[in-house]
Amino acid sequence: MTNGVCVRPVLNRVFDTQTGTDRVVGVSCGSTLVSKCPPCAEANRRLRMQQCREGWHRDTEPEPPADMDDVQDEDESAADDTESTRRVRSTRRRQDAADLPKVEMDKRTVGATFTAPNGKTYRPSMFITLTLGSYGATHRLPRHVQGKGIVPCECGVVHGRTSPLLSTPVDPDTYNYRRAALDALHFPKLVDRLMQNLRRRAGYKAQYFAVVEPQKRLAPHLHAAVRGTVARDTVREVAKATYHQV
């Protein structure tokens, strides 16, 4: 810890196909919590600071890469895929998917600015949290409802914070394990598609920081800080349509 080395490295066994030998290699855990690994948490904190200095707080547009014109999103490449003879993944839209009208794209990434009556300029941003839907009732801590006192879990028991039942299904026979597994498998694709659709509806290629965390029920959970502002109704509309499509 004193020398800035990970205190809980992940040990991986590496097999050398040339010599036929194997060895154990330690990889940093990459934790962002000081309570778990102070050196990795400090390294991640400094990385975020550097990223903010170089991107988040910019008030000018970054230089686009030379091959930017060659990059296409899924919708734009759909026509090319259908004409190719090679086997490709279909990108056709579902007929029952909600129609998300596009707006004219502005060639910017830093978000709009607003000037207050006192002359001060503000460049707002927003924080988005996206949670997957319920797959069935889970054991929860009791909550207090005004006028009703303590309300227990749906199973009728008042759990403590150390109860091993917390976040486990109340009824395993009716819990939708299949949907939970599919959501976890496709979550990276869901996030990628969500940002594409959100940018189309917002009208600019918004910059964002995002992190995916597992909830206690083990469902992935997204936190994203986005430069600029988008109406809440628009975010809800995009999230719903994207989940249905993916």
TrEMBL record:
Concerning InterPro entries, the annotation shows:
RepSA
Basic and acidic residues bias locations: 93-104
The source organism is Kribbella aluminosa
Q: Where is this region: Disordered?
A: 56-104
Q: Where is the composition biased (Acidic residues)?
A: 62-82
Q: What is this protein called?
A: Replication initiator protein
